[in-house]
Amino acid sequence: MTGQPDADAASSLAPAENYNSMVLLIDDQVLICEAVRRALAGEADLDFHYCTNPLDALRVADEVKPTVILQDLVMPGIDGLDLVRQYRGKATTHAVPVIVLSTKEDPSIKSDAFRAGANDYLVKLPDRVELIARIRYHTRAYLDHVQRDAAYAALRESQRQLMIANLELERLTRIDGLTGLGNRRYFNEYIEAEWRRAARTGAQMSLIMIDVDYFKRYNDTYGHLAGDEVLKKVAGVIQTGASRPADLAARFGGEEFIIVLLDTPLDAAGQIADRIVQGVRDLTIAHGDGYLTISAGVAAVAPREGLTLESAINAADLALFRAKAAGRSRVELADMQTD
4-aspartylphosphate is carried by which residues (predicted)? Predict the structure, then answer.
């Protein structure tokens, strides 16, 4: 009788019936321990250990890793039922089957034993055939339980990984691959949903339309790879400027970007746009005789009769056009009465 089943290994390598029963007897009487050892001798699938000091029971159980514990009830210094409760309270033994061994066939003692967490009750010394049958039954049930738990854990982990993968896939469908900002598709979904919400609540939102000044000239001079790096850096400044959880910064197309600021009035949105324009200046990216800059147009809108989402975006775009016409590297605010 060699070897012992490790619960973790048993859960992943083979069915429960392919593993030996590891029996641990806790009894202070050496004669009883020897009698049980002889009863189990010759059974190739039964490994046997015993412990005569009940104070060492938990430690020995951790070392032996039993599939069944045979627990004497009456021992010096500790009540056998107290040990049963301790097994149930310990992570390494809480599920290990416990067969209580008693000198009495007493219903009240049986009741106390099962209440404490015992799985079975035998009067010692039990019939050899019955003892072996119960040990095998409880071992099989325990290892099946371990395997089930491992399967459930693997399933939960698989589901968790799938959820993470789906969330990442969803994130990627919303993100512009170059800049890391929201893409045009996500912007369209987001602004339409927020426009409907604002129509119900009367809330105001501000839009900031941004364009990189003379970007085609930059690409022609420094190359498209350098142009891509510029867009990444500009996007970083924009993302920093639109830092509230509900703010959305997205790549609108090419070198154009747009920011949605919920519940933000025109003057506050203008200040944010000013900081972003200055932030790009501070990058000091060489461009011609000076540095690369951006221009921005800002519109503050609230859905109302006669005002569509398209006209709100156009208002920010017209303000951007005025910023370009006024010399670039500046912010212009939309006048919703005229734009």
Answer: 72
